[in-house]
Amino acid sequence: MTVPTRGDLLKSAESFCSAFADKKPVEEVLSHFSTTHATSCFEHGLPALAPFLGRTFTKPVEYLGIIAKYLTYKNMKFFAYMVDVETRKVCVHGSANFTWTETGESWDEVFTYVLDFDDEAKVTDWKVWADTGAAHLAKEGKLKDLGVLRRDE
Fold first, then answer.
1. pTM, whole model, 2 decimals?
2. Residue of 69, 89, 96, 114 with fewest CB within 10 Å of its CB?
3. Pairwise CA distance, residues 131 & 142, whole Å
4. What residue ranges define each of the domains in the chain, with the CATH number in brackets?
5. Three-state SS at 22
């Protein structure tokens, strides 16, 4: 049994995050997921707030598809990678400007990913903690009511 090193896990996490941030083709993002273990994507939050929240997606392509349907993003950056070799997990913080496509409302946010890896340093689980309130308000077209609507420069 192969045991990924800290460097292996960090490199895999950075590669996955870069592919996602750079809006690489779906196939390239999916290439970072395990093909030998079950996979899942889960974004924490109440399902009533947004269609991608509070649901376990067992096929990453489905999660990526629903995100692409409702959100666009730019200026995505990742920082503060924390690697736990024993549990094969990497926690990373990111930031980006998100836009709800139907309303055009945008907001800046900081979010957290926890990535679990298999013995080949491929992603098995992708957990997301993000600003579900902002996403919901943008979906409803109500960010402007709070004075936090971001306008593109």
1. 0.93
2. 69
3. 15
4. 6-144 (3.10.450.50)
5. coil
